[in-house]
Amino acid sequence: MLVESEIRSLKEGTEVTEVIFDAGAIAKRVAELGREIAEAYPDGDLLLLGLLKGSFIFLGDLVRNIPRPHQVDFMVASSYGSGTTSSGNVRLLYDPETDIGNRHVLLVEDIVDSGNTLNNLIHLLQAREPRSLEIATLLHKRIANKLDREPRFVGFDAPKKFLVGYGLDLAEDYRHLPHVVALKE
Ligand code: IMP
Ligand code: MG
């Protein structure tokens, strides 16, 4: 259930069918992920590469829960192609091009759906020869039929519904909602 102020923060006419992961459950899981990540990297430089915009809230919470030194940067990618099926191509709108040759890189995503975004970015980043390259995603729909690299850190398996909130959007709305919710289709 959403509280009154949350309902007022939504566009008029929005129908939320279900709160899938509430703020408390997300906070608990993100804290666990932070510890898992710190333990997975006993040495070396660690760079968290947040994929904007969807990951901005997850990344912000995650970095404050990783008890080891690390750096943060961002990438902005846009998939392009015609119609509703992705062409499988990703265009980079912002690319830090920082030297990752000597660093562990952890790509941070909001949600894995078809897997197209990750499949493209993984190859692009791997070509820069990082010390290691892994993926952390808050949500995983488990519907991608071919993921070139499975995310090593997954917050939650997600239902096969369209989800918004905690960074996820529908046409740029709803990112600010503290919970992950399903909208009425
Ligand atoms: P993929 O390339 O099909 O795996 O899609 C990944 C991107 O699509 C994510 O980074 C999201 O920005 C967006 N996306 C996929 N599923 C959802 C959803 O249920 N709600 C909001 N955005 C989604
Ligand atoms: Mg999006």
List the helices and strands and how they pair.
Elements: H1 4-8, E1 16-21, H2 23-40, E2 45-52, H3 56-63, E3 71-80, E4 89-94, E5 103-112, H4 116-126, E6 132-140, E7 153-157, E8 163-164, E9 180-183
Parallel strand pairs: 2-3, 2-5, 5-6, 6-7
Antiparallel strand pairs: 1-9, 3-4, 8-9
Bound molecules: inosinic acid (IMP) and magnesium ion (MG).
Brief overview:
By secondary structure, the chain is α/β, with parallel strands linked by helices. The protein is built from four helices and nine strands.
What does this structure look like?
The structure is a single chain. Helices cover 23% and strands 32% of the residues. It is of the alpha/beta class and 185 residues long. Helix 4 (116-126) links the parallel strand 5 (103-112) and strand 6. Bound molecules: inosinic acid (IMP) and magnesium ion (MG). The site of inosinic acid has 14 residues, from strand 5, helix 4 and strand 8.
Q: State the helical fraction.
A: 10-25%
Rounded to an integer, what's the Rg over CA atoms? 17 Å
Terminus-to-terminus distance: 18 Å
Question: CATH topology, what is it called?
Answer: Rossmann fold
Strand content: 25-35%
Coarse structural class: alpha/beta
CATH architecture: 3-Layer(aba) Sandwich
Strand arrangement within the widest β-sheet reads 4-3-2-5-6-7
Overall body shape: globular
Describe the sheet with the most strands.
6 strands, mixed
Tell me the number of helical segments per DSSP (H or I, 4 or more residues long). Answer: 4
Mean pLDDT: 92
Bound chemical compounds: inosinic acid, magnesium ion
Low-confidence stretches: 82-87
- Write the element-wise H/E pattern from the N-terminal end onward: HEHEHEEEHEEEE
> Quick one: CATH class?
Alpha Beta
DSSP strand count: 9
